[in-house]
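Bug report

Summary: C-alpha cells for Phosphoribosylglycinamide formyltransferase differ between web form and batch submission.
Environment: batch mode, default settings.
Steps: 1) Submit the sequence below via batch. 2) Compare with the web form result.

Sequence submitted:
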Amino acid sequence: MAVHAPRTSGPARLVVLVSGSGSNLQALLDASADPGYGAEIVAVGADRGGILGLERAEKAGLPTFVVKVRDHADRAAWDRALTEAVAAYRPDLVVSAGFMKILGPAFLGRYEGRTVNTHPALLPSFPGAYGVRDALAYGAKVTGCTVHFVDSGVDTGPIIAQGVVAVEDDDEADGGDALHERIKTVERNLLVEIVGRLAREGYRIEGRKVRFGS
C-alpha cells in the first residue's frame, strides 16, 4: 500500500470512534483546543449508546452518531452504514479511540491509510483483545503501546509509533490492571502526539513504513 496524505490547508478534520469511557477522546479534545495542534474533532461516533464517550462529545458541543450492529441485517450492512455515517463529516483522519469493533471492507475501502488505532502492546507481539494479559503470561519484561494504521488484519497495519512500559514484578498480582493503567497513560500521550503530527506535517505510507512530511 502506498498512501500520500499531504498536510491540510487548515486544521485536519477528525472523526473519532468510541465504545466506552472515551479517555483517549478526552485527551484529543483537550489537545485540539489549542489552535496550534493542527486538527479538530468534527464528530464522534459509537457502536452503542449510553456511554461516557458520547457524553464527553456532547458536553464539548460535538455532533454524535451511533451505528449499532444489531440494527442491521448483517455485519456487512453495518460496515456500510458506519462508512456512510463517518463520510458525512468529510474527515481527513479517523481515530479509533477504544472502538471495539473490527472495521470491514467497505470502511477500509474508503479510509484505509487514514484510520489510526492504538493497541496496548508492542506490535507485532501480542495482537488481539488481550495484549496486556498475553504479554504478562509470556513473561515479557517490557511491553507498551502501539499507534498504527488500521488494515484488514487484526492489529497488523503499518506502525506509526510505539511507547515502552516496563513490566514490574508484582504486575501479575492484580491480573495486569496496574500495568494496563500505566500503558493507557503512555498510550493517550502518544496518540495525541501522533495525530497532531500526522495533521500538521502530512505523511506517506510506503509498504509498512510510515514517514512524516508531505
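Above is the batch result. After comparison, the two runs are identical; trailing whitespace caused the diff. The radius of gyration is 17 Å. Helices lie at 23-32, 52-59, 75-87, 105-111, 131-138, 177-201.
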